[in-house]
Amino acid sequence: MNSVARRRRNQGGYSFIELMIALSVMAVGALTQASLTVTHYRQTDLNKELIVVAEAARSQLEIVRGTDFGTVLSTFHGTSAQQFDVDGLAPAKSDKDGRVGRVLFPMVGNDLREDVKDARLGMPADLDSDGKIDALPKNLTYRFLPVTIEIRWQGKLGDRVFRLDTVLVDTGS
Fold first, then answer.
1. Can you give the residue range of the structural domain that contains 10?
2. Which of 11, 35, 47, 136 has a Cα-to-Cα distance from 153 of 20 to 30 A?
3. With bands split at pLDDT 50, 70 and 90, how would you rate the model's confidence at 38?
């Protein structure tokens, strides 16, 4: 075989194996991109869900803060105002009352108590500023009021819970 024929044969293009390897690499790249796109859209949906939940919790907390401090407990504990709905959210499957939101306090039965253990709320704590933590009801004498806004809903990933914890303080105004 002369040198011209050999050069043409060597420059004749890609072999079948080279072509298959190139197509395999491109397929892996395309599948990776498709997977990332699906993950991105799923995460975007979850973020939208959390924005709705966080905004609802913040809005409910503003309603609680807008209530006269001395009547917050009687307004939101054991009344219909304790539970609330959030547009666009379905109650968690385990929910018994069919409402997604709740306003919660450190209670034992119907009594606001200082001796409740709840690290999220900084409890136990001296709620009436008398210098001691006891097991007596503070429903009428509280000066500090720990509050949790809790939302339980059926989300895209199953039952979900969001809590917003704060402490309201009697400013005397």
1. 3-169
2. 35
3. confident
Pairing relation of β-strands 107-108 and 111-112?
antiparallel
Helix (H) or strand (E) holding 54: helix 16-65
- The β-bridge partners of 16 are none
Residue 86's nearest CA partner among 58, 120, 44 is: 58
Contact between 116 and 108 (Cβ < 8 Å): yes
Q: Lowest-pLDDT range, 38-47, 104-113, 116-125?
A: 38-47
Instruction: Tell me the per-residue pLDDT of 67-118, one tens digit each, with 9 for 90 and over.
Output: 999 999 999 999 989 999 999 899 998 888 889 999 999 999 999 999 999 9
The helix/strand/coil state of 119 is: helix
The CA-to-CA distance between both ends of the chain, in Å, stands at: 105
Segments in 66-171 forming alpha helices (H): 72-76
